[in-house]
Amino acid sequence: MTSPTEFRPLSLCVLTVSDSRTAANDASGDYLCNALADDGHRLHARALLPDDKYQLRAQVSAWIADDAVDGIMVTGGTGFTGRDSTPEALLPLLDKQMPGFGELFRALSFEEIGTSTMQSRAFAGLANGSFVFALPGSTSACRTAWEKILRAQLDARTKPCNLVNLRPRLLESPYTDVRAADQGRASKE
b or e along 103-121 (b: 16 or more beta carbons within 10 Å of the residue's beta carbon)? Predict the structure, then answer.
């Protein structure tokens, strides 16, 4: 078994959501792919899709159904314009939301861009045992999220706790411990 103080590489996906970017000019997607690789993680898959909630939902659904995927980073579509649809597309897929991620991201962004951070609908959560992080489309926002939040939380060596060490327990049933306790009591009776 791996010691909790050893680095454990994760298998991560990167999805860029944009109506105007191409593979040739996807600076935010490039940044995330390079950052995760530089920090020892594996890029499982990468995609670039238009701001269409059904295409986004289909792609992320396929990734969260894949047991080999530990996490998904989505960049773009988190603003307020009519075409920004990442939250509407992906929030219904989450089993649990991680409100602290969006709150922390906006607090850190406030230091960089002031009150403009209130326009970000960045969020994170858990879907079928995979982490999902939805970030704004700017490269600087992706850098803030990676360098100030994700790098540490996706590293098993981060103390006092991190997301990596939760991985073995993410799919456990809320009734598992109750049943085990009931069985233990029954065997003593």
Answer: ebbbebbeeebeeebeebb
CA distance 95 to 16: 22
d(CA 133, CA 186): 43
How do the pLDDT tens digits run along the chain, 189 residues long? Answer: 445 579 999 999 999 999 999 999 999 999 999 999 999 999 999 999 999 999 999 999 999 999 999 999 999 989 888 888 999 999 999 999 999 999 999 999 999 998 998 989 999 999 999 999 999 999 999 999 999 999 999 999 999 999 999 998 998 887 765 455 445 545 444
Cβ–Cβ under 8 Å, residues 75 and 14 = yes
Beta bridge partners of 48: 16
Chain centroid to CA 40: 17
